[in-house]
């Protein structure tokens, strides 16, 4: 197994047990509290949401009360259709089961006595102007991200020409210095040393740094510097999709380094395959420029041009041409005849 | 210095995969290793672009020139790759 897979495969995926109701305010739902921020510290431990239609109607078996409850037109109009005492009984059936929070869609309000009931049972009552389908969609995406598996990786994560490049390698090999060098050349630092990678939609990995460290970088022999303060806003970004892992290695003459690049090697992180490059380093080698070239080559491949493939195909065509015309002379020069001027 | 004659024996010729095999094998030796075509194009066998430039089809004869402390072993190793057709159909 290549060392890079070893380093990354052993990572233990982390997952949040629960989030506080107040975290929901980060979701793009324009949520406001309808009962004075009651229940904002309640915990949500499930990424699924629930619509409490049958529970309101009195069928409380199998009621997933630990889930976030979403009440749309159906629930609200149903409650309105009831007499006051039935309405209170129906709503009490839900809140007394300690649901963490209820979200009302379409800007719906609840009667004051129902709001008071929610407060009594310490249930957060939130309101969004969005319609129910959209709310559920946004909540699923938001909760999916909150409860997504993530790993913490030791490395430097930089946006190079819009490509998310993660540098890994032994401590002291120069990951931070490469990140700084790239920043100096106009690229953007996402995180250094502590990179948190989160799986999204089971298909991609999103990376960010830690909220404590943000864009602080340690430079050996100097201490810590703040890249955002030093290089300005253009030098940083908060998040980036991970696209390439570059593993920096001390030069090892017996190691088999890639010479053509026809076969794409990958590493698996959280079950997602990410393109990877093993890069030997030695004094005088300009890794920064190579990192830029790696990013540009990745873009070229993404846009349909693979230099290795093109050259291999061209070589095969040339070999078969020589087989068919063995006697023909073959010109090695790119320019057959230096015509005209002598420039 | 060691000089040998090697022949491209595999059907597909010296395409990308065999070229990569040559440079990876050549890189394991300290000696300077060259391949020369009969039109006197001499290339460094440790350079992938160089070896590809030969565009040598099946039956092509190349001169293998090796010079250095491990020249005999290096020459044997490279010659063996040609001899076995790089593990491809002959």
What name goes with the CATH superfamily of the largest domain in chain A?
A: P-loop containing nucleotide triphosphate hydrolases
Mean pLDDT of chain B: 94
The count of strands of chain A amounts to 17
What order do the strands of the largest sheet of chain B run in, or round the barrel if closed?
A: 1-4-2-3
As a percent range, the share of helical residues of chain B equals: 25-40%
CATH class of chain B: Alpha Beta
Order of helices and strands of chain B: EHEEHEH
Number of helices of chain A: 10
Helix-strand makeup class of chain A: alpha/beta
Write up this protein:
The complex is a heterodimer of chains A (343) and B (90). By secondary structure, chain A is of the alpha/beta class. Chain A folds into two domains: 19-146, HprK N-terminal domain-like (Udp-n-acetylmuramoylalanyl-d-glutamate--2,6- Diaminopimelate Ligase, Chain: A, domain 1), CATH 3.40.1390.20; 150-302, 3-Layer(aba) Sandwich (Rossmann fold). Helices cover 31% and strands 25% of the residues of chain A. Chain A has ten helices and 17 strands. Chain A has helices at residues 3-9, 53-56, 73-81, 84-95, 112-120, 132-146, 175-184, 227-231, 287-302, 307-324, and strands spanning 19-20, 32-33, 43-44, 49-50, 68-71, 101-104, 124-127, 150-160, 163-168, 188-200, 204-208, 216-219, 223-226, 239-241, 244-250, 266-269, 272-281. Chain A has an eight-stranded mixed sheet with strand order 14-11-10-8-9-15-17-16. Chain A has a five-stranded mixed sheet with strand order 2-7-6-5-4, sandwiched between helices. Chain A has a two-stranded antiparallel sheet with strand order 1-3. In chain A, strand 16 and strand 17 (272-281) form a beta hairpin. The longest helix of chain A is centred in the last third of the chain and has 18 residues, at 307-324. The radius of gyration of chain A is 29 Å and the shape is elongated. Chain B has 90 residues and is an alpha+beta fold. Chain B contains three helices and four strands. Chain B is globular. Chain B starts with a strand and ends in a 7-residue tail after the last helix. In chain B, 36% of the residues are buried. The model of chain B has no long low-confidence stretch (mean pLDDT 94).
């Amino acid at each position: 197994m290549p060392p890079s897979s070893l380093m990354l495969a052993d990572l233990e995926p982390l997952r949040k047990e629960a989030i506080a109701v107040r975290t929901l305010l980060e979701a793009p739902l324009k949520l406001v509290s309808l009962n004075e921020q009651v229940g904002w510290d309640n915990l949500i431990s499930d990424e699924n949401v629930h619509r409490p239609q049958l529970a309101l109607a009195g069928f409380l078996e199998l009621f997933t009360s630990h889930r976030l409850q979403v009440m749309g037109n159906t629930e609200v109009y149903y409650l309105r259709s009831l007499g006051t005492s039935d309405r209170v009984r129906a709503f009490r059936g839900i809140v007394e089961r300690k649901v963490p929070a209820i979200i009302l869609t379409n800007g719906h309000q609840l009667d004051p006595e129902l709001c008071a009931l929610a407060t009594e049972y310490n249930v957060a009552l939130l309101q969004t102007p969005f319609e129910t389908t959209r709310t559920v969609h946004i909540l699923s995406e938001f909760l999916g991200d909150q409860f997504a598996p993530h790993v913490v990786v030791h490395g430097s994560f930089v946006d190079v020409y819009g490509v998310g490049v993660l540098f890994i390698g032994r401590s002291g090999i120069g990951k931070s210095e490469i990140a700084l060098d790239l920043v100096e050349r106009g690229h953007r630092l996402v995180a250094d040393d502590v990179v948190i990678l989160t799986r999204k939609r089971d298909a991609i990995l999103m990376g960010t740094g830690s909220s404590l460290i943000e864009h602080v970088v340690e430079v050996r022999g100097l201490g810590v510097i703040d890249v955002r303060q030093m290089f300005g806003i253009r030098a940083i970004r908060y998040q980036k999709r991970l696209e390439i892992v570059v593993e920096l290695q001390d030069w090892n003459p017996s190691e088999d380094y890639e010479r053509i690049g026809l076969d794409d090697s990958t590493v698996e992180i959280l079950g997602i395959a990410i393109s990877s490059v093993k890069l030997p380093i030695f004094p005088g080698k300009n890794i920064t420029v190579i990192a830029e070239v790696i990013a540009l080559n990745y873009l070229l491949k993404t846009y349909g041009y693979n230099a290795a493939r093109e050259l291999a195909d061209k070589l095969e065509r040339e070999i078969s041409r020589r087989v068919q015309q063995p006697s023909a002379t073959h010109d090695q020069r790119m320019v057959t005849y230096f015509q005209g001027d002598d420039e | 210095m060691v000089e040998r004659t090697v022949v491209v024996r595999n059907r597909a010729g010296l395409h990308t995969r065999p070229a990569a095999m040559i440079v990876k094998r050549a890189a394991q030796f300290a000696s300077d290793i060259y391949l020369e075509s009969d039109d006197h194009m001499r290339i460094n066998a440790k350079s992938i672009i160089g070896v590809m430039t030969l565009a040598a089809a099946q039956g092509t004869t190349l001169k293998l020139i090796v010079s250095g402390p491990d020249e005999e072993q290096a020459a044997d190793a490279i010659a063996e790759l040609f001899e076995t057709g790089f593990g491809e159909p002959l």
